Amino acid sequence: MSFMTKGVLTQMVFYTTSHVVWQALAIHFSSQSKTCIIHIHTQLATIKKGTHYANEYFLSIKKLTNELVVAGRSLHYDEIITYVLIGLGHDCDSSVSFIYTRIDHVTLKKVYSLLIVTEARLTCHHLSAPTPIFKADVVQRQPMQLNTMRRGGSHGRGQQYHGFL
Q1: What is the mean pLDDT of the chain?
Q2: How far is the C-alpha of 71 from the C-alpha of 69, rounded, in Å?
Q3: Are the C-beta atoms of 108 and 81 separated by less than 8 Å?
Q4: Which of 39, 125, 128, 143 has its Cβ near the most Cβ atoms within 10 Å?
Q5: CA torsion 61→66→72→73, rounded to 10°?
Q6: 116 lies in some domain
Q7: What pLDDT, in 10s, does the model give residues 103-157?
Q8: Range of the domain at 112
Q9: 106 near 99, Cβ under 8 Å?
Q10: How far does Cα 92 stand from its chain's mean position?
Q11: Domains contained in the chain, number
């Protein structure tokens, strides 16, 4: 028991056999492991690419999936691809549709390459797009008075139409 930390040792001090100690350790660490796995899955489900570069986003997902492996739960590549695609924004919708509609085997490497290419094209289009110039010319008109007719008719020629312009 000299290899245990003080916190773990205080939980095991009342157990009399090594078999009971090992069972208690297994239960203790498996519950921590389950909590850790749930937390990582939640992070994977909620992570968003946002304004991050594609390689940063991909590496953060890779880090989380590696943490799952350490916790004893590895993911299939299809699950990882799903997490990657869920976190992409609307600007990547065409790439997401392309991946979902492919019949052949899609690898993480292909998904990563597609994200890098998509990001490069979006950046290129963003840099080459002219910035819109908004200009508004405002013309104010005085509202026509509906009661322009006086006794004796209208004053002046051609002013008998009282509609809106």
Answers
A1: 78
A2: 5
A3: yes
A4: 39
A5: 30
A6: yes
A7: 888 899 999 999 999 999 888 877 665 555 555 555 566 665 555 555 555 555 5
A8: 37-128
A9: yes
A10: 11
A11: 1
Has residue 7 been placed in a domain? no
Is residue 81 exposed (0-12), middle (13-18) or buried (19+ Cβ within 10 Å)? buried
**Chain position carrying tokens 């052949």:** 104
CB 73 within 8 A of CB 41: no
Convert the pLDDT of each residue in 12-57 to its tens digit: 767 778 888 887 777 766 666 778 889 999 999 999 998 889 999 9
The pLDDT value recorded for residue 164 is 40
What separation in angstroms does the CA of 11 have from each of 30, 34, 145, 149? Answer: 15, 19, 91, 99
> pTM score, two decimals?
0.58
- For residue 54, being part of any structural domain is answered with yes
How far lies 28's CA from each of 43, 76, 113, in Å? 23, 27, 42
In a domain, 28, yes or no: no
